[in-house]
C-alpha cells in the first residue's frame, strides 16, 4: 500500500526571501522560457510573465519567430531569442523552463535533445513532456535538477498507460514517474500531488475555474522563477504549486470560476504573495 500525501498548509508557508537593499537584477537569476511554437505564443508569454512575477531578475523568451511580435507587445520586460536556438552561452545562474506551447515538430525535438544534455536547473512541462515520453529517460543525459509538471494526460503518455489509470491511483502514478525519470514532480489537477526530496504532499487549494487554457503555463513560469531567485527545489515546488492555486482562488472569488482566464491567475499572484508577506510581518 502507498503512504498518504499530507496536505500543505498555505497559512504556515514561508514567503519569498527578503531582498537585500544592495540587490540588483543579477541577484535574482535569469530564466529562459523555451516554447512558443506557431500559434502558441501566448503560452510563452504567460510563463515568462509568471517568472518575473515571483521576482526573477531577467527573463528571456525563446520562441518561434512568429511568437515574438506578440511577446514584445505583451511583455516588453522580456528579452527574446528566435528558434533555432543554441544554449552554449547560458549564464551561470540560468534556469530553463521548457515546453509551454513548444509543439512537437522537428525543431522542438532538436531543442529538447540539446536541453537534455545541459546541467542548469530545468522545469519541464507540456510538449517537452510529450517529447520526453517519446524518447524515454535516455533523453536526460545529465543529472541536472529537473522539475516535471505533467497533467494527467501527459503523465499517462510518460507512463504508457491511460488517463483513467493515472487518475485511479494518482499516488502510484507520481511514484512511478519519479522512479522512471528521476527529479521532482507535480501531478496536476484537483488536489495536485507533489513529490520531491523531502516533499510528499498534496495541495488542497485551487478550483475548477483553473481548468482553462494556459493556467499550467503560468505554473511553469512560477516554478522556474522561484528556482531562479534561489529557493531550493523542494521549496520551489511547494511554494510554487500553492501560490498558483491560491492565486487561482483569489481570482475565482473576484471573477467567478466560469469566467476565469489564466491571465487572471497571473494577475492575482502578487496578492497571494502579499498574504504571505503580511502574515510574516504580523499584520
Ligand atoms: N495560449 C496558448 O498558447 C496555450 C498553449 N497551450 C499549449 O498547447 C499544447 C498542448 O497542450 P494541452 O495540454 O492542451 O494538450 P494535451 O493533449 O497534452 O492534454 C489535454 C488532454 O489531457 C488530459 N487531461 C489534462 N488534464 C486532465 C485532468 N485534470 N484530468 C483528466 N485528464 C486530463 C485530457 O485527456 C485532455 O484532453 C502545449 O504545448 C501547451 O503548452 C495550452 O497550454 C493552452 C494555451
Ligand atoms: N479542478 C481543478 N482543481 C484545482 N486545480 C485545477 C483544476 N483543474 C485544473 N487545475 C490546475 O490548473 C492547471 C492546469 O494546467 P494544464 O492542464 O497544464 O493547463 P494548460 O495546458 O492549459 O496550461 C494545473 O496547475 C492544475 O492543477
Write structural notes for this entry.
With 283 residues, the protein is α/β, with parallel strands linked by helices. It has a single domain (26-280), classed as 3-Layer(aba) Sandwich (UDP-N-acetylmuramoyl-L-alanine:D-glutamate ligase). 43% of the residues lie in helices and 14% in strands. It is built from 10 helices and 10 strands. A 10-stranded mixed β-sheet has the order 1-10-9-8-7-6-5-2-3-4, with helices on both faces. Helix 1 (41-53) links the parallel strand 2 and strand 3 (58-63). The longest helix is centred in the C-terminal third of the chain and has 23 residues, at 233-255. The mean pLDDT is 95. The structure holds ligand NAX and adenosine-5'-diphosphate. Ligand NAX binds next to helix 1, helix 4, helix 5, helix 6 and helix 8. It comes from Acidithiobacillus ferrooxidans (Thiobacillus ferrooxidans). Keywords: ATP-binding, Lyase, NAD, NADP, Nucleotide-binding. Belongs to the NnrD/CARKD family. Its cofactor is Mg(2+).
Find the count of extended strands (DSSP E, 2+ residues).
Answer: 10
Quickly count the domains: 1
Q: What's the Cα radius of gyration?
A: 17 Å
In CATH terms, what is the fold-level topology? Answer: UDP-N-acetylmuramoyl-L-alanine:D-glutamate ligase
Report how far the terminal alpha carbons are from each other.
43 Å
The helix content, as a percent range, equals 40-55%
Main sheet characteristics: 10 strands, mixed
Q: List each distinct ligand once.
A: ligand NAX, adenosine-5'-diphosphate
Can you identify the CATH class? Alpha Beta
Strand order of the largest sheet: 1-10-9-8-7-6-5-2-3-4
**Average residue-wise pLDDT:** 95
- Give the uncertain stretches in residue-range form: none
* Helix-strand makeup class: alpha/beta
GO molecular function, one term: ADP-dependent NAD(P)H-hydrate dehydratase activity
Family: Belongs to the NnrD/CARKD family.
Organism: Acidithiobacillus ferrooxidans (Thiobacillus ferrooxidans)
Subunit structure: Homotetramer.
